[in-house]
Fold these 2 entries.
Entry 1:
Amino acid sequence: MYYLRAIWEGFIKSIKEGTTVSKNLFPMIISIIVIVKILQELNIIQYVAMPLEPIMQTMGLPAEFGIVWACAMLVNIYSALALIPSMLLFVPSVSVEQMTILGLIILIAHSLILETKIAGRCGLSMSFQVILRLATAWICGVVVHIFCSNFGYWQEPAQILFKAGTAPDLMGWVLNELKNLVRIYIIICLVMMFNKIINALKISQFVGFILGPLLRILGISKEATNIVIVGLVLGILYGSGIIIQASTEGKISRTDAFTTMSLMSIAHALIEDTILLSLLGGSLWGLLGVRLVFAIGVGVIINLLYAKKHHQLELKKRIA
């Protein structure tokens, strides 16, 4: 009886939290949907997307997907999900490869304004974090595209939850968009519930057990390793909060703060965000595995370069 009551209370709390989050998100999402609809009616979306075409082509993606990515970078992942139906009217046939790449670049580079401000509060360079995430996302997209094109992976048509559906009139369009907003609301509530399950099952401890030794090999201290695990599982907001506190108390060095924040900026909320982007029809394991591999690879490079630079500065100080 106790467990049933706890489950029910968790369910109700998730709906309340999901409703609160939706109230904050939906005004912004609706305004973006309306703007895109106006551009669509004026038949100028292709011209808006044109400047993004060269970059998107290098990753095997249509130019219109650049608008989706730009929206994710400036706003958040949910706004990108809301735009997909409108963009699919211009690119009705997409492969699993394309949706996996789109999902990866969104996962690596999204909410840049908010999340780089968080990095700034940790005492790190905001411009560096933006460049790091954009460059990593683009390189990741190019590499996956080349690999899939040469070896024939993920070439089957993508199964997308958010369908385009050509509306015969304005009322039909409104109804279609309302259905998609309801889907997004349900997803947000499920995400809230999923986070509670993660905490209850102590999944972060399990991930820490697996990744801990690898992170320490990268040169990240034991204290910083625990912070990275929190960021990887729960999100950059939780991880950065711990970094700020640990830095203030002197528990981690500036080197640890820099390397952990850089690693978390590329790979955070691995479970929650990966499931969200898999709704676009990409490969779930591709979104999770490729992102994690790239994050660790970038972490190795950053750690080596930063550690080398820090070591040289220390030598100069001693000589002086």
Entry 2:
Amino acid sequence: MNIREQTEAKEYELLSPYAAKSKEARRKFPMVECDFRTKFQRDRDRILHSKCFRRLKHKTQVYIVAGDHYRTRMTHSLEVAQISRTIARGLRLNEDLTEAIALGHDVGHTPFGHAGEAAMEKLVGHFAHNEQSLRTVEFLENNGQGLNLTFETKDGILNHTGKNLPKTLEGRIVRTADRIAYLSHDYDDSLRAGLLNANDLPKEVADNFGIKTSKMITAMVSDMITASTGKEDILLSPKVKRIMGIFREFMFERVYHSDTLAHEREQAVFVLKALFEYYMENFSLLPQEFIRRAEKFGQKQTVVDYVAGLTDSYAVALFSQIFMPPVNSLTVNLH
């Protein structure tokens, strides 16, 4: 019995009957099994070492080009993974699967956060970052070969948001852990940015969750574990679910849709619109690896894949390169 097989056997002994078991996981294309890592562990590693995951360090969470101490998509994904593993361990579910889903859930996100996602939606008629995340790991990564992740991991990535629930409890953990992470951490970043102060928080949220990020996370995570123990679903108590709704409405009103960030959102939309239209008209100027994909996916989808995959900084640099004349070429008559 090798190490992987021992780990697979221990899952049946130690994990909940409701947990996903790595031995039962399947891939689209069968692979020779690793002697040491389970299928879910290999999923996690493949995502962690992918280009799409590395790009998340230069993609906005909320504040565009805000400084070193604000969250990015990468730090958000790591925080979701940590919260998800804590919940999974408390419920004796599969930590490796929750971590793989959490690390991969946002790899298809556009530059400039949800402003970028809204811009792509307007440009192409339909765009959802969860669908693009699945597309990224399934078709675009690894030079177009995809990462060949398990169906359980892909299901969790696709359904971490939207109307359909993940099939596994591990995927459902990530779905709620994602919300816990972004509410708590975006609130923390908003305090740092001076957009909010602690007195702004709705009283019911402050009274029940506290005003410090760590206490907020602890309150919601503890409730999830308590409410879900022994159940065939991932639940929140009615009270905590209602207060999270209040917290979410507050964050959308005061932060995500705030007038203060309106100019940044407009700039993001302007840059992505300009780049999308430019490459639709000048398709031959895309990198060759994308041009080769057009035969399979079509020109429009290929441009969407390229623009959606850009980091914030590279999108701005491309925009400047294409649309802004070099400063040293300008002559200014001062007389």
